[in-house]
Write a structure and sequence with these properties.
Deoxyribonuclease I, Chain A, catalytic activity, alpha+beta, Cathepsin B, Chain A, 6-stranded mixed β-sheet, 3 domains, 25% helix, Papain-like_cys_pep_sf
Amino acid sequence: MTIHKAQGITVDQVVISTKDFFGSGMGYTALSRVRTLEGLFLIDLRVDKFYCNENVDRILSQMKEMKRKTSIFRHSPEFLNILFHNIEGLKCNFNALRNHYLTRQADLICLTETWLNDNNQIDKFTINGYTLIHKSRSCLFSTNHSLHSQKGGGVAIYYRDNMSVKTIDSTEYLDLEHITLKLEKEKIIIIVCYRSPQEAKRNFIENLIRHLKQFDSNEHILILGDMNEDSFQTKSKTIERSLKKLGFVNTFRHLATTNSLTSLDCAYLNFVPCEKESKQVIATFYSFHEALILSINSIKDKVHNYIETEDDIDERMEVNSTSESLPLITTISYNSNKRKSTSIGKKNNKKFKNKTFLPVMDKNNDSANYDKKNPDSTKITDVNKSPSTRELEFLSNLKETVPFNNLTIGDSRFHSLTEQLRVLNLRTIAIIGDGNCFFRAISDQLFDTQTYHRRLRSDAITYIRRNIAAFEFFVSDEDNTIYDYIFRMEKNYTYADHLIIMATASILNQNIIIHEYGKRPLLIPGSDYIDRQLHISYNPYNQHYESVKDFDEAIPIMSFDDLQLT
């Protein structure tokens, strides 16, 4: 029997002659017909007849190693573990949800689109150890509302039986598909909501804002939901803009949450989780939507308020007097209806798009006293870590970047960095040129202000000082020893070089992308996750760095294929 005719059959024993194999894959097809190794007999063995198609071999060599992400859920009383999912039918997907490996690890399971119209049905969907609260679409909309009689919708929350929970109803009747709880111990308000595509965004956000007005501005509030507004879009983000004005930030912004790689599901917070990797998108096989999980430290996470110090005032005057094109810091009146007392507080939430940071209390840090005065200078760095092998290999292999025309963005010839960035829908943000420009640009990426360049420089130097043995081989000829380098680089107004840039990327757990005219963007590795990126530009003629963002004021994300890695 020929191998072609044997395709599709499975036998207990087979004798294979390899001398007449003439194509790639024939060996695999023949060998895979037998059930066990003991039933395989080879004659006329020709090892050279077993080979892979060169195209398949090439693709396999290009594929990156997949690392299974570990769950960010923390099994500690200090942490609140939350799972949110647009389940698209609790009745049909209940068993899949109940048996998902993360479900029983969550303290709260928040669902939208349950598609249950009768609350009497919820007894069929209980999970041992959890209490279920469900509200159908029909009971949340007035009888004259167009969605009242429309099928679908419905929101639900499962919470652990041992949790102290208070259900909060709105002080006025709202046509808003939502459930609101207050966790008494954690002192966090949870709002789970859903906006149907048939509902106008303006109507939805107006009702949601009316609901939010009943809460004190110092409350920790987390809004979970599918609002059918894609955060990847550059226009028509009415809901995101409105919530941002109230100090809320979508921590899953620019992360794909559906099978079609759109970002519809969101988690808006008015506080910043300070634990590393406090969010994650988890794949599901039974819904168009993926699941979102968050682990929040209810003790450490604080609502961000801003108290301006004399140092901040001096810094602000320096920024404002340097260039009229730089954004001014505007103070919002305390009588404002907004949920933050100052615009810095609002910006402080805005800065954490797609980022989570690890706090480090460093008593030996030179700027520790400065941070005590300035609570907005959140400790986002980890100076106690050790350099990774990847980072040290990068320093060893650092060389000239390849020509920019190798980056596949078109055949256009650019006359300036501005044109080069515009093709990528990017632009530069003006940075003061005083020798601190690199740290100012990174500060702008993180905080939307250049103020915190001194803290970033200090922490990077502390990191190098604690890892002298690893970094002393990479000191340039300008310095005789690593100690000379540290003495020079820790001074204000000193230009940054490759070593301090590498250190900054490492302590921030961020990949720093450097754009330079005529060259491919260079990735300075600081994180294993490609979506953790900070973008700056470099002009070699005046050794000046500037911040790079897209035209929507967001930090861009580029793929590995578009970057130079060494």
